[in-house]
Amino acid sequence: MSATFPHVLLDALRTTRHLVVFTGAGVSAESGIPTFRDALSGLWERFDPAQLATPEAFAEDPTLVWGWYEWRRMKVLAAQPNLAHHAIAELETCVPRLTLVTQNVDDLHERAGSTEVIHLHGSLHQPRCVACSMPHGTLSSAPGEPEEGRRLEPPRCLHCGERVRPGVVWFGEMLPESALQAAFAAAQDCDCLLSIGTSGVVQPAAMIPQLAAESGAVVAHVNPQPVSVHGPREFSLEGPAGVVLPALLDAAFQ
Ligand code: BV8
Ligand code: ZN
After folding, report:
1. Fewest beta carbons less than 10 Å away: which of 4, 75, 109, 212?
2. In terms of CATH architecture, what is 34-78+128-165?
């Protein structure tokens, strides 16, 4: 993609002291991981994700919710990081300081080589006891056949016998305080922020790009859909992250 990028953005990347990269489900789309809205395809399509990703849903129907998360976890195990994840990992070597903040619960950033990843919404790979919160480490690590729509009985905590739950932040649950504070601090300190593959719907994560813009940072959104921008230092780069990000790195650093 020999696209031209705004000079304000290229200059900001070349001279940044502290860059924040903020990602949503769209950065994993080209790895074949359905975005949150698409995640309810097939047999789950009759459910609303915001209804299924809640403590109430798990309490009411643990086998349905656990089956959905195990299907998603198997898809992540079978997936590979895409060119966007690799470009973000490479960005770490191009700038003095990069803070990566993700809303995603997959580990594709880590598998692409990103060294520090702030997970605002937890991880599919950190199940814990619903009662005593003890981490449950013995989930199968082989990507099985992700059977869509299959109910699964969650394992039992080895410490207290209660059910194990996914290690994600559900709707209505607080985000991990330290992760949120670190993300807010980075957004207020940075001089450039790339927001990649997010619909900017879910709070409080969606505040991150706004905080950066209000602190004077240059902000660019990477999304196949146009993102509404405000002012001369905010940009919407339309296209898939796996195409736009490698081109942006080439334009800025080659
Ligand atoms: C909280 C983990 C406060 C789970 C997720 C009523 C009741 C209760 C709460 C609320 C309420 N109303 C509002 C709220 C707050 C609520 C909220 O924001 N709701 C929304 C729906 C309005 N927030 C919360 O509940 C949060 N907690 O507020 O607690 C509180 C206060 C006091 C006491 C107690 C609590 C917790 C929110 C965290 C929820 N967990 N994930 C799981 O994954 O199962 S959020 C989940 O959805 C994802 O993590 C993601 O962040 C979000 C959106 O998912 P998607 O839409 O799929 O992804 P994304 O937004 O990233 O969109 C995809 C984008 O990619 C699109 O724009 C698309 O165009 C683009 N794209 C596609 N392909 C590509 C691409 N981009 C680039 N390249 C491509 N190739
Ligand atoms: Zn327990």
Report:
1. 4
2. 2-Layer Sandwich (3.30)
* Any atom of ligand 1 within 6 Å of the Cβ of 12: no
125-184 pLDDT, tens digit per residue, is 999 999 999 999 888 888 776 677 789 999 999 999 999 999 999 999 999 999 999 999
Q: State which H helix or E strand residue 234 sits in.
A: strand 234-238
Residues near 137 by beta carbon (within 8 Å), at least 6 away in sequence: none
Q: What is the CATH number of domain 1-32+80-123+174-254?
A: 3.40.50.1220
**Does 105 appear as a known binding residue?**
yes
Give pTM, 2 decimals: 0.95
Q: Residue 209 carries which DSSP code?
A: H
Active-site position among 109, 121, 125, 136: 121
Residue 7 designated active-site: no
Tokens 């195409």, residue? 243
